[in-house]
Amino acid sequence: MITIIGAGAAGNYAAYLLAKQGFDVQVFEANSSIGKPVACTGILTSHFDTLIEMKKELIANEISSSRIVSPDGSAVKINFRKPNKILHRHMLDQHVARMAIEEGAKYYTSHVYLENRNGKARIRNLKTEEEFETEYSMLIGADGPASKVAKNNGMYGNRTLYLGLQATAKHDNDNVIDFYPGEQGIAWVVPESGSTVRIGVASTTGISDYFNTFCKKIMGEEYSEKIIEKQAGPIPLYKPDIKTSKEDVYLVGDSATMVKATTLGGVMQSHLAAKALARSIIERKDYENEWRKVIGRDLWLHLMMRKAMDKFKEKDYNYLVNIFKKDSNRKILEENDRDFPTKFMLKLALSEPGLALFSRFLI
Ligand SMILES: Cc1cc2nc3c(=O)[nH]c(=O)nc-3n(C[C@H](O)[C@H](O)[C@H](O)COP(=O)(O)OP(=O)(O)OC[C@H]3O[C@@H](n4cnc5c(N)ncnc54)[C@H](O)[C@@H]3O)c2cc1C
Prior knowledge:
By secondary structure, this protein is an alpha/beta fold. It has 10 helices and 17 strands. It has 3 domains: about 1-35 and about 90-155 and about 240-305, FAD/NAD(P)-binding domain; about 45-90 and about 160-235, D-Amino Acid Oxidase, Chain A, domain 2 (2-Layer Sandwich), CATH 3.30.9; about 310-360, no CATH class.
């Protein structure tokens, strides 16, 4: 029996791929409803279409361009080769869980993982408060940023967690995703419809002040009246030396810190890692090698960019946005997918000598 802890992006996709190959799979999820509460903006680049067929009802909006806005207010507009999708994130999780169930996976919601020892996981049913043990041949920790599976099995490490705070709010917009990188972290405004946005910030410090100041800047003094609902959640910073397997225990997704350190997005990476995990189990390959081959170098490059950005002052962001405004540089960004910077960073560095100035931040 393969036991998966967590019915989020990573857990559901691993459950689907493994059940489809005939493995006995059970998934334990602490929440009573899969995908809820939501703590995700749901932006996905078009590469996601190669993984999962997107049903229309999962998509809240499609957007063809983004702006990177610098602290001095200037912006570069990037037109995507293919539109980004803005998903109803809970519906994506529920959709993939249904795919897994159709392939034979068993799901238990309101069931929280407590610990594991000698091939048995201890689970508590939150509805009855009963505890029981279940045997496993493999235990997959897909239990998110604060992973208990990682903690209990000595794989948590000394990780950094960002906090993301966002709101759905009434706000007229021109259907462009706006990113606001800055000294405190990143902020975003993502249109859900012509009159509604998902507006949020992520940082390691002072999140409430950051959120309130940003909302006021975008929506004006009366911003709190425009807010429909708020969501919050931790986001791990990628740790390149993280151990993701130990004997019969594996980590995948946020539990293994597989998040892009620049934009703090991890839904695509969770699915790609789940696919690598399923492949390594089916083909008896080394999991660490498999996931690193697919996303390791890109995650590392995102982390290097984040390390440089952490030392940026406002003037550095202003300079960077100006560099991206040059036609030749903007084109490189437009032709490539931001999930995979290894495919274009060298090209960009060669096209723009000014970028070399930023390498001093890595020393
Ligand atoms: C505000 C915010 C906005 C974001 N926006 C984006 C975005 O636009 N695009 C993007 O790609 N990424 C975004 N992310 C990141 C993205 O949400 C995560 O990278 C992604 O959800 C990781 O999937 P996962 O399956 O690893 O973890 P999760 O989706 O967190 O799933 C983990 C699951 O495990 C369950 N669980 C935890 N502990 C236990 C336990 N002990 N027992 C049983 N179950 C347990 C949880 O309830 C949860 O359902 C955002 C994050 C935040 C906080």
